[in-house]
């Protein structure tokens, strides 16, 4: 089934139906402020452009047999290795970007300081190391697996089948990056075959809870008024309902963040807001001032706090605010609209892997926890209704790195979030459990090695009313030095930061720019898998927009979205070359402006402003459970059609971690093993992204005797043992936003 929707009706029908029901129950009404001149201008732009998105049933995607869809297999060894490893992890790797490495029996992956050695499964069978190979395209890593991990997997399968997590399905949606490309069925773990040393596919859960709007809203993207207007934990600056300083308020988060900053929480927040009052140069990008921050946020807030605010200028022309008394954080004009679980970001790359190529080993972490606030200007303040709220088209998103590491801890974190789907609604037990989860992240001291000992990764803003054009900014508790290429945690105030994966859009325009073209067809394309297509399948990248490129500063200090359908182009890209098309798409989609514009057909924000509960973009919902939202390529048109169902993807990842992930102990080896490989084979089979630390001669290893010698010397270089999920080596993917 295919449904086409005009862009002006882009918010998914399922979301709108849910919103309407909850609005009626909550007694809310639309805010007249949203029908002002700025909003009317945006609607006119959207209606003029009229691009279309396409919703399509997930079940209409191609079907793949489970055995072919699984990219990881686990095999018990008949006898343990010299390092007491008892299992073989077989991984389906993409072809190397460097074509010289095709046919190599060994691949060196991971970080230069802790390389990971993988051997082609067929070679291990030929050497008598394993009794059976899952196929010539698989590479193998030996590890130690506790039998309790198998028992836990089997028990999880039984619990799911018994309905302990609700209704289940055996449908598995196969994603390439953010794009759903196929469907398959789950596979149960066959203990009998495992005990007979036969490889067992692991990457598909045999059953997962059915994906529903209710499920998403309880454990992934929580927008219910029962949570965001919870009277015990939130305070509404529009109506005055709730508890001032509650655990889910802007005031609480800022007070925790300001500790050990050297400033009071009130000054900490004021200095952050003053950032808009002066132009700043960030990595060569001149970011203009937006003086309406004073008129629309600071001054009204000061008046509501019982004080006066004066905008002053010093002898150098620097603007600052003088207050007759501190801002009252308890009545901050930031209204909570969503709490978001981004455990899916736990499989992002933390740094370019010198040996990675199109595949990289991933550190284990638990992703992010996010709070989304809408900026308002109530009149009366704290004593009115939603109709008098002065809702602005502006959001502030607190994005915390969950301070949990280690495979078993991440698995438990995932289980804790899935438990939210078992309380039968947003009752007292649910709210208490959710508070426990959020407080374990946001409280001061939870991240001792980060700025102010706070877990914040970044605070992002996306707003229109302060400057007439949508602008995204990013703030961190780090000292970013683009010239030196460093970004170090540091105590103190929130500081401006370059925006993730986005060039300076003033110096390097969206369309027709030679530098952008060179970057897409150079560094981005270099990280795209060699075997792309047919599109949209197998399209991913591991690029990073650098501080400098082409001889000058490149990454931007802000991101502007001058119309709803911004995207980035590479004029030299060849529409007939799938890698060119993929590289251009990956580059544009992962910018702030592309993700919040044409590449997802999103009208600037992925959640609406003005209503509680918010509605979500079709990029997030896919159009609803069981659907995908399709967008034609913004440079070349359709085909290809890039499909999105991001909450479906996040749901899948959450339950994979919670119920179908086994933790294994991987023995890391020291970097000196690379020198020994060079001695044995005269070459090193690495597939690097960019420069590596040592100038190794790169080439394939095709001699079985060399493979045997390399396996024998592993023991000499063994270091520590790391707990990793069995899928800790995966194709590199970008999930920035």
Explained architecture:
The chain is an alpha+beta fold and about 725 residues long. It has a domain at about 65-145 and about 160-205 and about 660-730. The chain is built from 20 helices and 34 strands. Strands 13, 18, 20, 21, 22, 23, 26 and 29 form an 8-stranded antiparallel beta sheet that branches. A hairpin with a 2-residue loop joins strand 9 (about 170-175) and strand 10. Helix 9 (about 250-260) crosses helix 10, helix 12 (about 405-420) packs across helix 18 (about 645-660) and helix 14 packs across helix 15. The protein is globular. The two termini are about 30 Å apart. Residues about 1-50 and about 350-355 have low confidence and may be disordered.
Chain-wise SSE layout:
Layout: E1 2-6, H1 13-26, H2 37-49, E2 52-57, H3 66-69, E3 72-76, E4 87-92, E5 106-111, E6 114-120, H4 121-126, E7 138-143, H5 147-161, E8 168-169, E9 171-176, E10 179-185, H6 191-195, E11 200-201, E12 208-209, H7 213-219, E13 221-222, H8 225-228, H9 250-258, H10 265-274, E14 280-282, E15 285-287, H11 292-304, E16 309-313, E17 319-323, E18 334-342, E19 359-361, E20 368-376, E21 391-401, H12 407-418, H13 428-442, E22 456-463, E23 470-476, E24 478-481, E25 486-489, E26 495-497, H14 514-526, E27 548-549, E28 552-553, E29 559-561, H15 578-589, H16 592-595, H17 618-621, E30 627-633, E31 637-644, H18 646-659, E32 663-669, H19 672-681, H20 704-712, E33 718-725, E34 729-731
Antiparallel strand pairs: 1-2, 2-30, 3-4, 3-11, 4-7, 5-6, 6-7, 8-12, 9-10, 13-18, 14-15, 16-17, 18-20, 19-34, 20-21, 21-22, 22-23, 23-26, 23-29, 24-25, 27-28, 30-31, 32-33
């Amino acid at each position: 089934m295919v449904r086409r929707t005009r862009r002006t009706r882009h918010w998914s029908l399922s979301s709108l139906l849910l919103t309407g029901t909850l609005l009626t129950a909550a007694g809310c009404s639309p805010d007249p402020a949203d029908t002002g001149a700025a909003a009317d201008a945006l609607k006119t732009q959207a209606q003029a452009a009229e691009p279309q998105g396409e919703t399509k049933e997930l079940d209409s995607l191609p079907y793949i047999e489970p055995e072919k869809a699984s990219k990881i297999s686990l095999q018990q060894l008949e006898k343990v290795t010299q390092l007491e490893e008892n299992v073989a992890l077989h991984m389906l790797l993409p072809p190397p970007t460097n074509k010289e490495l095709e046919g190599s029996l060994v691949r060196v992956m991971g970080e230069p300081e802790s390389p990971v050695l993988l051997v082609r499964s067929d070679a291990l069978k030929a050497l008598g190391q394993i009794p059976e190979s899952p196929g010539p395209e698989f590479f193998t890593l030996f590890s130690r697996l506790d039998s309790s991990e198998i028992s836990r997997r089997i028990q999880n399968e039984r619990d799911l089948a018994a309905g302990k997590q609700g209704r289940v399905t055996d449908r598995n949606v196969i994603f390439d990056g953010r794009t759903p490309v196929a469907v398959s069925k789950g596979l149960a773990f066959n203990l009998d075959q495992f005990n007979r040393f036969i490889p067992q596919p692991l990457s598909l859960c045999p059953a997962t809870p059915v994906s529903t709007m209710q499920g998403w809203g309880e454990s992934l993207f929580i927008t219910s008024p029962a949570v965001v207007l919870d009277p015990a934990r939130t305070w509404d600056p529009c109506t005055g309902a709730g508890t001032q300083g509650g655990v889910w308020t802007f005031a609480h988060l800022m007070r925790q963040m300001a500790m050990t900053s050297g400033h009071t929480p009130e000054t900490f927040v004021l200095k952050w807001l003053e950032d808009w009052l002066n132009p700043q140069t960030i990595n060569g990008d001149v970011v203009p001032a937006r003086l309406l921050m004073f008129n629309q946020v600071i001054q009204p807030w000061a008046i509501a706090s019982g004080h006066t605010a004066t905008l002053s200028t010093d002898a150098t022309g620097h603007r600052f605010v003088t207050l007759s008394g501190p801002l009252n954080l308890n009545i901050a004009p930031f209204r909570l609209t969503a709490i978001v679980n981004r455990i899916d970001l736990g499989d992002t790359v933390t740094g370019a892997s010198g040996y990675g190529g199109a595949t990289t080993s991933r550190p284990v972490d638990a992703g992010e926890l996010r709070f989304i606030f809408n900026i308002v200007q109530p009149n009366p303040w704290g004593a009115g209704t939603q109709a008098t709220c002065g809702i602005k088209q502006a959001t502030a998103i607190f994005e915390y790195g969950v301070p949990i590491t280690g495979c078993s801890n991440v698995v438990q974190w995932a289980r804790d979030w899935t438990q939210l789907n078992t309380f039968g609604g947003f009752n007292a037990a649910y709210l208490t459990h959710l508070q426990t989860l959020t407080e374990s992240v946001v409280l001061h001291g939870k991240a001792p090695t980060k700025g102010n000992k706070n877990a914040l990764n970044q605070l992002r803003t996306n707003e229109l009313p302060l400057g007439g054009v949508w602008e995204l900014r990013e703030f961190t508790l780090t000292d970013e030095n683009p010239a030196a290429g460093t970004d170090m945690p540091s105590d103190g105030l929130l500081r401006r930061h370059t925006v993730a994966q986005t060039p300076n859009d003033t110096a390097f325009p969206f369309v027709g720019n030679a530098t952008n073209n060179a970057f897409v067809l150079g560094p981005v394309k270099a990280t795209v898998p060699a075997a792309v297509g047919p599109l949209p399948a197998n399209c991913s990248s591991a690029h990073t927009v650098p501080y400098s490129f082409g001889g000058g500063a490149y990454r931007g200090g802000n991101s502007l979205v001058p119309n709803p359908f911004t995207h980035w182009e590479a004029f030299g890209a060849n529409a007939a070359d799938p890698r060119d098309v993929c590289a251009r798409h990956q580059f544009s989609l992962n910018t702030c402006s592309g993700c919040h514009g044409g590449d997802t057909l999103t009208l600037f924000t992925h959640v609406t402003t003005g209503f509680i509960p918010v509605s979500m973009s079709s990029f997030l919902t896919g159009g609803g459970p069981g659907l995908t939202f399709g967008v034609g390529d913004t440079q070349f048109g359709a085909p290809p059609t890039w499909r999105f169902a991001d909450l479906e993807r996040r749901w899948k990842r959450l339950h994979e971690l919670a119920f179908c992930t086994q933790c294994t102990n991987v023995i890391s080896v020291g970097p000196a093993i690379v020198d020994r490989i060079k001695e044995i084979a005269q070459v090193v089979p690495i597939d690097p992204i960019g420069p590596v630390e040592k100038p190794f001669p790169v080439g394939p290893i095709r001699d079985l005797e060399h493979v045997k010698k390399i396996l024998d010397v592993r023991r000499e270089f063994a270091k520590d043992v790391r707990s990793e999920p069995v899928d800790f080596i995966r194709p590199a993917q970008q999930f920035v936003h």
